[in-house]
Amino acid sequence: MNLSQHFGRRMIAVRHPCHQLGALRHCFMETGGEQLDSGHRSGTMADVAKKIREHVGVEGGYHIIPKSRDGLLKFQPKQGELPNRSMLDSQTTAQVLLETDALLRQRFVYGRGLLRMGRIIEELDLLAVWICHLHIHLPNLPKGVPLPYTFITMLVDHAHFMQDKFIADADVSLSGHVSYTDNNFMEVTAYVRQSGMLLAKGIFVIEARDAINNGPAPVNPLVPANKLEERLHQEAQKRHQERAKALYRLESQQPTKEEQQLMYELFTRTKGDDGPSPSDMTTLPPNSRWMSTWRRRTLMHPFPENRNESNTIFGGFIIRKAIEISYMTASLYSNQRCMIRFIADVTFAHSIPVHSYIKLKAYVVFTHENYIQLLTVVNAIDGNSFTELKCNVLHLTYSCSKAVPEILPRSYHEALWYLTGRRYFNRFRKSVSHDMANGSPPKTDGAKKDNK
């Protein structure tokens, strides 16, 4: 059964006015190349969530005061006690059974039948944590003692999506492995496939913390075991070096001379024929919109069901909610249904306690042909003190089936946001040419191992 038969609707194709991206889209669907596969299978994503709880010794159900894990601190190893690990040691695959589980499928689809990419990346974030569990090996940990670690998502470096190629009535396969380690950090590369085709890819940075989440914990060094692992490790090392740069985050960079010229050109386009005057400083060109009028916000109350093992709100849940408000904002802006293509630099500045409120704000900051670039900010309001903290920033790229109106800044502050959006859109185009051309693996490399 195909998707149109299942949901009784006409499929909508997404046009690609940008020929470069259209060509790269085909590369993303190729099934040639090499794939790291250890043969390890972790069952369904429900099994993965259960295994994580068992590994860390967390009791089922919600407890306002969780069981103390202070007694596990004495089992935290020194860095020198940890043996080397390869990528195959952490590589695993898990399933989302959409074909046979109608109730699960209902949680993963929009009203018109498209798969919800927010749900997909939420599951991918959970899998990344499980992959870190598989990577950590403590040879001196007594049998039966829970893992004295806590894992926190610090960053989603970037993620690609081919949303229009997913179908709602076929199983989804999630896989991944640790691709880089540095003291107490691990980079996890994760893939999403359906019917053998690679349809999404994400890079996560996970921090290892001690049993009570009070300080860093060492991780096993990653040593590539073969040529494929060496190549993947070199790519990850380049990403790590970029992240280590002081000006890595694109919004923190000062405007270049080229960008300053662009800002002036935007000003001349919007000052009107007679130039700016005290009563009217700006004039909106045809088929364009002011950035100041295109922002959407909402306030929500998360619940214990949205928490992780540390009794804070699960990072994947936060990303999903940010994707949902950005999707609605992009769709309302374009007056058409949009597809998410790219997320970059999803930061986690503060964890969100389970008793907090979450404020989400989405801004349209840049447009190009049929693409919309959004900046989404997630703040937390503490349910006890009612103080507000900035917790997350996301940069998202959406595509539409038709060209969209141009977004234009009206102030210097908005012009800086416009430049930031333009930088992230250019990063999307650059990243897509690399990940889509080189990131589609199927030949396997590595021996099978027993499922953990």
Commentary on this structure:
By secondary structure, the chain is of the alpha+beta class. The protein has two domains: about 30-245, Thiol Ester Dehydrase, Chain A (Roll), CATH 3.10.129; about 255-445, Hotdog Thioesterase (Thiol Ester Dehydrase, Chain A). The chain has helices spanning about 5, 20-30, 45-55, 85-90, 100-105, 115-135, 225-245, 255-270, 315-335, 410-440, and strands at about 35, 40-45, 90-95, 150-160, 170-180, 185-195, 195-210, 290, 295-300, 340-350, 355-370, 370-380, 390-400, 405-410, 445. An eleven-stranded mixed sheet has the order 2-3-5-6-7-4-10-13-12-11-9, with helices on both faces. It has a two-stranded parallel ribbon with strand order 1-15. The model is unreliable at about 1-30 and about 440-450 (pLDDT under 50).
Q: What share of residues are in beta strands?
A: 25-35%
- Average pLDDT, rounded to a whole number, is 85
Helix content: 25-40%
Structurally, the number of domains stands at: 2
Q: CATH H level of the largest domain: which superfamily?
A: Hotdog Thioesterase
Stated plainly, the CATH topology of the largest domain is called Thiol Ester Dehydrase, Chain A
The spatial strand order of the largest sheet comes to 2-3-5-6-7-4-10-13-12-11-9
Estimate the global geometry from the Cα principal axes. globular
By secondary-structure content and strand pairing, the structural class works out as alpha+beta
How many strands, which pairing sense, and closed or not: the largest β-sheet? Answer: 11 strands, mixed
**What is the end-to-end distance?**
34 Å
CATH architecture of the largest domain: Roll
The stretches of 5 or more residues where confidence is low (pLDDT under 50) are 1-32, 438-450
Helix and strand pattern? HHEEHHEHHEEEEHHEEHEEEEEHE
Number of helices: 10
CA-based gyration radius: 23 Å
Number of strands: 15
CATH class of the largest domain: Alpha Beta
